[in-house]
Every structure is written in C-alpha cells, then in structure tokens.
C-alpha cells in the first residue's frame, strides 16, 4: 500500500491566508467583520448582497475558503444566494455560514434544512465566530490536501487522457484490512466501465484520507465531497466503523462512496441520509441492497435545488 507524505503540502496550505467572502448589507457590521478577519490572518472579501457576491465569485481565479452571508439583503437575499452557490460545481463545496438577526427556531431550522454548514445569530461573540471559521478552515484544508494527493496519483493522471463515459453513477463499499489495506466488498453497478480500476480508486481514496485524518479520526462518521478533476467526476465519501476486537484499532473501518459526473452540496446532504442507512445495516450486520439505494441516489442527482421560504 502506498504511503503519502503530506508535510510539504500542509506547509504550503499554512502559508496561504484563507480567503473569506463576507456578504452583508450593513456597512458598519461588514467593516467590523473585515477588521476581525484581517487581525486573525484571514483575507476578507466583501459584498453587500447576493448579486454582488456572485459577480465576485465569478471573477475569482480561486474560490474563497468560506462564505459568510446575511439573509435579509436587497436584490438577492441569502437564501437565493445560497441556492446559486450550491448549484454551481465551482462553488458547491465551499462551507457556507449564515450570519443573521433571524434567530427564531423556525429560521434556524430553515437555515439548517437548506444545508448551510452553520448558522450564527446577531449579535455574535467574536470568539464564537472565529471558532466556527477555524473549524471550517481545517476541514477545507483537509479536502484540498486530499484533492492534491489524488491529482498527483499516476493512475488518475492516465485516466484523464482516456476518459470515456462520464454519466455513470457508482456506489461502492470498501473495508479496511490491516494486512492488505482497503478492499472493495460491494459495488453497484457491477459492470466496471469507468476509466480507472475502482479497486485502485477506492484504495487511493481510503489511503489518502487516512494519511490526512489518521485512523483515529476517520471513523467518527467523517464525510467528504471531492471533485476528481482528472476523472471529470465528483465523489462523496462517508467513513465509519464498528467495534471489532480482532482488528488492530479495535474496530472495523469502512468507506461508503458515490461517484458520479456531478454531485453538488445539496445532493451530498441527501446522499448522506442514504449512506447513514447503509452504514447502520453494516454496523448491525443486517442485509442491505445497493441497487435500490443506487436508484434513490440517482433520483437525488436528477433533482433540482429548491428553496422554500
């Protein structure tokens, strides 16, 4: 099994100031947030409404690491802005935080239902805001590092030149074996018509993830949404485990993955619900079938993003 040395990539990530796009129509509050971010070694970008923010996003060479947005804004409010961001493959994996005075339980529930990564109410404590940002940045850096590792993988580089079918959806389950590393135990559909061996891909995804998270953290129901640019596909991964005294770490670790031509943030929220049901069956050692779950995920991928106010 290949070992990945991530120290150099981690150093490169740490030298770059994380970009944070703040969308807020209150000038005083926007100014204060910019000061907080600058004094904590972040690079703030600002917009006064969703329409202006979309223009900034489209002009950026590299997307921001986090978006913080108010909800009640002119021209394009926070909900509609979030819908646009989540529907665009260039931006749909950016952590999105609602920062708003709409603090009723119904408002907070709607924000979370839409799929926002967090919901901070005004007035907010500076330490709370920075803590949320720090946690999201750490997650962003892990995803960037994993993407970097996958792009440097020779098999995936070759696959980029031989790309054929782009619209297939695959679901696979891989268990971690202490002796052999990741091993696919179930896959649907069975026909392997993808440009690179799914066994190799599962091995690389699982191994690279462990090199970043470590065996201790990867089993805490971690999930990731990745863009595999070499394959022109997106991958949604869920890692979990169940107790097993015979294993070196005292638990059997596994990965459930979906691979498709396009998986946006909204899709990943629904796929996670489906994967959690599969994971529950794995833990309880009860029968499951990937075919009906494949049908459910395929329906999710065909669905349109809707925002209900």
Brief characterization of the structure:
The protein is built from ten helices and ten strands. Mean pLDDT is about 75; it is low at about 1-15 and about 155-165. By secondary structure, it is an alpha/beta fold.
Describe the protein's architecture and organization.
The protein is 44% helix and 21% strand. With 309 residues, the protein is of the alpha/beta class. The strands form two sheets. Strands 2-1-3-4-5 form a five-stranded parallel sheet, sandwiched between helices. Helix 5 links the parallel strand 4 (96-100) and strand 5 (118-121). The longest helix has 26 residues, at 126-151. The protein is elongated and about 60 Å long. Mean pLDDT is 77; it is low at 1-13 and 156-167.
Q: Would you spell out the secondary-structure blueprint of this structure?
A:
Elements: H1 7-15, E1 19-23, H2 27-39, E2 43-47, H3 50-59, E3 66-69, H4 78-87, E4 96-100, H5 105-114, E5 118-121, H6 126-151, H7 154-161, E6 170-177, E7 181-188, H8 198-213, E8 223-228, E9 233-243, E10 251-260, H9 265-284, H10 290-302
Parallel strand pairs: 1-2, 1-3, 3-4, 4-5
Antiparallel strand pairs: 6-7, 6-10, 8-9, 9-10
Helix pairs in contact: 3-4, 6-8, 9-10
């Amino acid at each position: 099994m290949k070992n990945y040395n991530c120290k150099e990539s981690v150093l490169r990530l740490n030298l770059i100031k994380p970009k944070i796009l703040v969308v807020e129509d209150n000038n005083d509050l926007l100014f204060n947030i910019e000061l907080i971010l600058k004094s904590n070694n972040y690079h703030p970008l600002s917009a006064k409404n969703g329409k202006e923010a979309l223009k900034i996003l489209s002009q950026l060479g590299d997307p921001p690491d986090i978006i913080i947005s108010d909800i009640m804004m002119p021209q394009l409010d926070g909900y509609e802005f979030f819908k646009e961001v989540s529907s665009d493959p260039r931006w749909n994996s950016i952590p999105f935080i609602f920062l708003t005075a709409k603090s009723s339980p119904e408002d907070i529930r709607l924000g979370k239902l839409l799929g926002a990564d967090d919901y901070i109410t005004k007035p907010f404590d500076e330490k709370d805001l920075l803590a949320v940002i720090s946690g999201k940045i750490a997650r962003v850096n892990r995803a960037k590092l994993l993407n970097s590792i996958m792009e440097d993988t020779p098999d995936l580089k070759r696959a980029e030149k031989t790309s054929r079918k782009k619209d297939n959806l695959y679901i696979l389950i891989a268990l971690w074996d202490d002796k052999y590393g990741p091993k696919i135990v179930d896959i649907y559909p069975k026909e392997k018509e993808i440009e690179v061996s799914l066994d190799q891909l599962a091995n690389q995804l699982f191994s690279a993830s462990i090199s970043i998270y470590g065996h201790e953290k990867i089993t805490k129901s971690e999930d990731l949404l990745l863009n595999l640019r070499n394959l022109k596909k997106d991958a949604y991964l869920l890692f979990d485990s169940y107790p097993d005294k015979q294993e070196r770490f005292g638990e059997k670790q596994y990965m459930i993955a979906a691979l498709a031509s396009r998986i946006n943030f909204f899709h990943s929220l629904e796929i996670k619900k489906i994967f959690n049901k599969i994971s529950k069956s794995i833990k309880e050692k009860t029968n499951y079938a990937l075919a009906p779950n494949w049908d459910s995920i395929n329906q999710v991928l065909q669905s349109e993003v809707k925002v209900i106010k």
